[in-house]
C-alpha cells in the first residue's frame, strides 16, 4: 500500500478567492439577481474563485452589446492590419501574464502546472498566428466572365458568434476560437465552463487592455442550460462555435438549426494508437503512456485505446506498465507532476464505474484502477485494462479519465477495423517503421488527425477537428478565419444591358 499523497496547500489557500464579474459591453458587472458560482480547486479542496453567475438577462445584454458592436462599432470596419496589431498586443500581454494564467488553470482544473504553462505558451502562438491570417484573408475576383462583367467574391465577418468552451483546456480552447473570430471582424459572446472560468475572464481584461473596443468580446460565467442554451438560440447570434461533449454538441446543433445558424463543433473522441511489431517500441511505449494519461486522460485527443499487435503485446505492455509506474501523480502545482487531480468527484466516480464495469465483463485491471488516498483533492491512479474487446463500453465510449484500454490484433485489417469501430473519429496514431503500413493506416483510419510515429502534437498551421460524431468543421489551419466569414458575390456590370428580358 502506497503512502497517501501529501498535497501541500499553496498560498492561495489562505488568501481570499479571486472574484470575477461578467464582461458586458466593456464593463464588469454583477449578475442582476446577484447570484455567484464558486469553484474549488479539485487538487486541494479550497475555494479558488467566485464568478458572477449569468442568466438569460445577461445573455440578452451581452448579445445586444455584441450586435451593436458589430452593426455600428469600429471592429468589423477597421483595417485588418489594425485588428492584427491588437491581436499581437493581446499575445504579448498573455505572454507577460503566462504564469498567473497557467496557475489559475492548474488550480481550477487540476492539471499539472508545467503542462498548463505549455498550453498558455501554445495559446500565445495561436493568437500570433491568427493575427497573420487577419492580414491575408481575402476573397476572389473573376475577370473571365466577359468584357462587361467583373465578379468579386468578398469574405465578410459572419456577425455575432457564440463561443462555448469546456473545462479541460480552459485557456487553450478559447484561444482556438476567439482570435480567429476577431481576425475576421466578428464580435463574440463567450461562455467558459462553469468550473474553469477564471482564465477566460483574465483574457477579457487583456483584450480590453490591448484595445479591443467595448462590446466586441463579452464574457459570461454560468451554467449550460441558463447561459449556453440561450446563447445558441438567440436570433441575433449568427454562428455557434462549440467545444464539449458529443451529447451537448448534438443538443446545441439541434437548437442552432431552428434559426439555421452556422455551427462549428469540436466534440468527443475515442482515439486509438496502433502499434506494429516493427515500430520503435521504446518511443511507442512512451507515447502510449502519454496518450493515455496526459491531462489525466481528460482530453478529447486522449489515446484511450492502445491497439497492439498480438506478437508483441506481452513485452510491450510490460514496458508500458513499467513506464506508467514512473508517472508522477499528485499536486497540480508541483513542477514534477505529470498527472494532476480529476476535475470533480462526480467525474472520478463515473470513470471508476467504467473500470469496474470492464473488470466485471471479462477484462482485467493490469495496472492502477483505484482512487489514490490523499490529504486533499481527488486523484486516480493511471489505469491499464487488458483483454478489452470491441463490444465493451470501455472500448467505444469516451471515459475521459486516465484509463488505457488495450485491444490486440493479428492483421492490419483487424487493426483498422478496431480503430474505426467507434462512433467517434477525432484522431489516431500509428507506430511502424514501414512506410507502407503507416500509409495504409493513415489513409484508412476515419479520423480528422492521424499521427505517424508521434502522438498528440499540435501546430496552429494544421487544421484540427473530427470525423463522425467527433465534430463538424475544422479549427486552426490557414482557413480558420474563413470559418468565421460569409461569402458575398458581387457582379459588376458595365455598358449596355446584356440579355434584355422584355426588350
Ligand atoms: P460539456 O458538453 O458538458 O460542456 C461544454 C460546454 O457546454 C460548457 O461550457 C457547458 O456549460 C456548456 N453547456 C452545457 N449544456 C449546454 C446547453 N444545453 N447548451 C449550451 N451549452 C451547454 O463538456 P465538458 O464536460 O465541459 O468537456 C468535456 C468534453 O469536451 C469531452 O467530451 C471532450 O472530448 C470534449 N472536448 C472536445 C475537444 C475537441 O477539440 N474536439 C476539445 C476539448 C474537449
From TrEMBL:
Keyword Oxidoreductase: yes
Sequence ranges assigned to domain Aldehyde dehydrogenase in this UniProt record: 30-490
Entries under InterPro entries matching the protein: Ald_DH/histidinol_DH, Ald_DH_C, Ald_DH_CS_CYS, Ald_DH_N, Aldehyde_DH_dom
Keywords: Oxidoreductase
Keyword Cytoplasm attached: no
Coiled-coil parts of chain: none
Database matches in PANTHER family: ALDEHYDE DEHYDROGENASE-RELATED
Name of the protein described by the UniProt record: Aldehyde dehydrogenase family protein
Organism: Mesorhizobium newzealandense
